[in-house]
Every structure is written in C-alpha cells, then in structure tokens.
C-alpha cells in the first residue's frame, strides 16, 4: 500500500506546558485540519496522506497517541481531527526532542503505508535538557529518509528558535515555523500544513476556474474570427 505523504505530528507535553497550553495545541491542530484548503489538499494527494500523532517529554517518555491512519476525504479527516482534540495528556516531564525523533523514525519505519515522502513535525517550547542528542537524532532521521520540520513556540526559552534551526530542522525542503506563544499555535500550524502538503494541489479550484475562464474567452474569440 502506498501514499503520497506520511506526516507524524510530535507534540511537546513537557513540564513547561500547562493544561491550557496543551489544550491550545490540540485544539489548534484539530481546527487546522478542519479547514477546507487543508482537506482539499489531503484529498487531492495521490494515495492520500498517512498521519499519526505522538506525545513526547523526557528521554523515556514517548507515546503513540494516535496510530497511523490513511486520510483521503473530509469525513476521515474530521474524525481524526476530533480524536486529536480529545487526546488525553500522557506526560509532564523533562524535554527530550532527540528521543522523540528516534521514536518517530521507528514509527515511520513501521508505518503500514509506503509513502513517497516521510516527515516528522516536531513542535516545542524548550531546548533539550534530557534524552538523546537532538542534533544527532535529526541527522539519523535524514539518513533514514525522514524530513524533520519544526514548529518553535516562543515563550520563556529565548534560544528556542536557534535551537530548532541548529538541531531539529533537517532533510530535503525542511523548514521551521515560529509561533508567538500558544495563542498563535492554530494559525501557524495551519500555515505549516499548507507548506507540507503538495503545493501544486493547493488552490487547484481557483486555478481551474482561471483555466476554464481562459478557455471560454478563447472560444468566444474564435467565434468572432470565424
């Protein structure tokens, strides 16, 4: 079984994130998936998009919150988004993004769908203070054919942006998005999804209308010339 894209959302649930901030992450992810432009791009992706969600904290704290599922239509996407919004929290410990990446590589390798692109989306608000070396783990992901994109949440850690750029973001077309606190999470997560999904499919409806209009104008001109 194959698909166009496999996306693994790696959600930070370390001690620096309180209950309200955790809820802003999960609700923001869900609402982004409810958006029509995201759903259209997922539905238009050849073979659909496989998505899973992990929660991560300390070196030994990684949890597969939502296993791999292949999404291809609005009903499937809505159901998955609802599951994200209602995920119970698994941890509240140290910050080990490197260990989360290693866990994510293993999950990608165990994915029942063979996808053309494999991506880990790692979000977080703090630098590593435990677990596997993040820099080495990100290179391990790249060497395994997994791109690592980042979503850095600005807050108490003033070095979070540089930490992500130097240690997390890795692989072909990898990028970093930055959210100005948790209240901005939904907007930035939505923007990030649109960057990750096939670009030539986003906005297809609008381009199709433009093409159809051009064809009609061409036909009208041809009639006048006959």
Number of helices: 8
Cα-based radius of gyration, to the nearest Å: 19 Å
Strand count: 6
Indicate the mean pLDDT.
89
Backbone structural class: alpha/beta
* Poorly predicted tracts of residues: 200-212, 214-219
Distance between the termini: 52 Å
Helix content: 40-55%
Instruction: Tell me the major beta sheet.
Output: 6 strands, mixed
Widest sheet: strand order? 3-2-1-4-5-6
* Content of β-strand: 15-25%
Shape: globular
Instruction: List SSEs in N-to-C order.
Output: EHHEEHHEHEHEHH
Structure, described:
With 226 residues, the protein is of the alpha/beta class. It has a six-stranded mixed beta sheet with strand order 3-2-1-4-5-6, sandwiched between helices. It starts with a strand and ends with a helix.
């Amino acid at each position: 079984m194959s698909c166009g894209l496999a996306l693994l959302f790696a959600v930070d649930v370390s001690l620096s994130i309180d209950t309200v901030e955790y809820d802003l992450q999960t609700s923001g992810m869900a609402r982004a998936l409810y958006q029509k432009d995201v759903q259209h791009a997922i539905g238009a992706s050849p073979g659909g998009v496989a998505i899973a969600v992990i929660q991560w904290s300390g070196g030994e704290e990684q949890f597969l919150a939502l296993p791999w599922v292949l999404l291809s239509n609005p009903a499937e996407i809505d159901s998955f988004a609802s599951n994200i919004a209602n995920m119970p929290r698994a941890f509240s410990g140290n910050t080990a993004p490197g260990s989360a990446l290693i866990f994510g590589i293993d999950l990608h390798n165990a994915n029942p769908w063979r996808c053309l692109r494999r991506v880990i989306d790692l979000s977080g608000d703090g630098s590593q203070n435990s677990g596997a070396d993040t820099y080495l783990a990100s290179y391990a992901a790249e060497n395994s054919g997994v791109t690592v994109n980042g979503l850095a949440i600005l807050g108490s850690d003033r070095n979070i942006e540089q930490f992500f750029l130097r240690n997390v973001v890795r692989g072909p077309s990898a990028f970093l998005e930055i959210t100005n606190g948790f209240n901005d999470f939904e907007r930035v997560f939505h923007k990030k999804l649109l960057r990750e999904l096939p670009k030539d499919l986003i906005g297809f409806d609008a381009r199709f209308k433009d093409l159809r209009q051009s064809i009609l104008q061409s036909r009208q001109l041809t009639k006048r010339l006959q």
